[in-house]
Structures are given as structure tokens and as C-alpha cells.
Amino acid sequence: MILMRAPASELPIELDKVSVLARGNPILSDLSLAISPGAPTVLIGPNGSGKTTLLRVLMGLVRPASGRLLRGGHEGVNPARCSIVFQRPAMLRRSAAGNIRYALAAAGIPRSLRSARCVELLALVGLSGLAGQPARRLSGGEQQRLALARALAKYPVVLFLDEPTASLDPAATKGVEDVIRDVSEHGIKVVMATHDLGEARRLAGEIVLLHRGGVVEAGDAISFFMAPRTDAAKKFLSGELLI
Predict the structure, then answer these.
(1) Does the pLDDT value for residue 1 go beyond 60?
(2) Cα–chain-centroid distance for residue 17?
């Protein structure tokens, strides 16, 4: 199989009153949140609300100044089976297939399995016909799908995505979103940040609205969009600025 279902022991990821500072200024403030198995959790909010920092904390790339982070009910557990794709992923000076083979080697996949696995991953993201093309010459959407394939090399339990379709045209956006749906349907927990409310509506099972480094509202996506509970959420959905 291309993907593996996430073992329940790896989830939920729980944040308990987590704060993050940058040069003494709060980026996240006493933030509490639980990421559970299921459909994608989508982080939304105005620029500077803390979406990217929260993803980096969840991935283990940023250490909180205070608070606790638990994985599967345990504190201090390394995120060994989590992957992250950034808004502008760096492409290696190799072919599309070469980028994936590098990721497979880094993930410790046995050499005897890498060729078949590479073929599977290229097919998953719709890049089979571009396997030999230099990765840096691919279009923006193709590079983002290649980045998703690399991230899946180590059979992640959780896949973090930071604005994965930013600056992409509608056709490229659909290609990336199709991969995200496929990944989620195979049991991998997707946690993504987006500025695009349309994308959030299309993909989210759960919505987390952030503002000023805190959670304003979180819950079922359908309920959030149809009947937001807080004034801030109502304003954000109507297009008003959150100051």
C-alpha cells in the first residue's frame, strides 16, 4: 500500500496553555487545543494570527516558552512520524523521481523497496509522466504535489501543511486538494493552514480560528460555517477585519 493508517497511540496531539515568544513578544498565548484522528483540521485566521507558528509547534520545530504538548497522552514524545510541507518547498537539484528517492533514503526505507515506492508515490500525486523532469523546472502546482510525495515517504501519522495552495491557479489548487483528500481518506491526519475560506469549506472536518495567537473558535466545520458561535468568527466569515 502507498499509505498506512495512523496508529491511534500517536494521537491526539494536545496543547495545554502553550505560549511562544519571539524577541519577548507573544506569538501564541496560553493556547489550548486537541488534534484528534479524523477528517482534516484546518487552521484559519488573519495574517499574523499564529497559524504557521502553531504548525511548527505541533511539528516539534518550535519549543514553547511555557505550557505542555502531549502526543498520544504522553509528554516529551518526539514527532518521529510527522511530516510538514511548507508554502514554498525547496526542490533539490534532481529529477522529480530523484527528489522522492532522496526522501525515501532519508526515511530509512530499504534500498530494495525504493524504486517501487517511488513509482507509487509519483502515481499518487499525478506526476508519473514527469518522473525524469528536473524538479526545479516543474510548475508551482507540480512542485507542491512533489513536496507532498516526499512528505509521505516515511508513512507519516500526521501531515502538516502550511498554505499548500497559496499563489496557485485553480487547476493546480484542485490537483493539490485532490491529493490531500486521498491522503486523509487513507487515515493520515491532515492539519493545514490556509487563508482561503473556500478551500477550508472544501476540505475541513474541523475548523480552528486563530486570532492574536489564541483560539477564537474551534469545532465541526459545517457548524462553524453555518452558525459560528463567536462575534469574531461572524466578523471573519463576513469579510470584516479582525483587529
Answers:
(1) no
(2) 22
